[in-house]
Design a protein that fits this description.
By secondary structure, the chain is mainly alpha-helical. It starts with a helix and ends with a helix. The chain has a single domain, classed as Phosphotransferase system, lactose/cellobiose-type IIA subunit (Methane Monooxygenase Hydroxylase, Chain G, domain 1). The longest helix has 33 residues. The protein is built from three helices and no strands. Its cofactor is Mg(2+). InterPro entries: PTS_IIA_lac/cel, PTS_IIA_lac/cel_sf.
């Protein structure tokens, strides 16, 4: 695999999961104000971006599994870090939104 394509793949991951992370945080802010419909819309859209980033990442795993050498780079390591942190943040935000819903129900 040449360095240019690894760089492009890294940027595709970063772009997609960065957008997903922003949408997840917007969902949390919407839930905080009681707009759970908007929060769900944001989470749905965030998931679409996350899945796209994950597909790009999976394509590299498939190449390596097929015996093609995959170079290491700091940029790719950053892309993987963003992928994993976005997944963690999204999981926590979903739980926080559920807490906001329960808080609103009790008020």
């Amino acid at each position: 695999m040449n360095e240019g394509s690894l760089e492009m793949i890294s940027f595709q991951i970063i772009s997609n999961v960065g957008t997903a992370k922003s949408l997840v945080m917007e969902a949390l802010q919407a839930a905080k104000t009681g707009d759970f419909e908007q929060a769900e819309e944001n989470l749905t859209e965030a998931n679409q971006y996350f899945v796209e980033g994950h597909k790009v990442h999976a394509s590299l795993i498939q190449k390596e599994a097929a015996g093609e050498a995959v170079e290491f780079s700091m940029l790719f390591m950053h892309a993987e870090d963003q992928l994993m942190s976005t997944e963690t943040i999204a999981t926590l935000v979903r739980e926080m939104i559920e807490m906001y819903k329960k808080m609103e129900e009790t008020n």
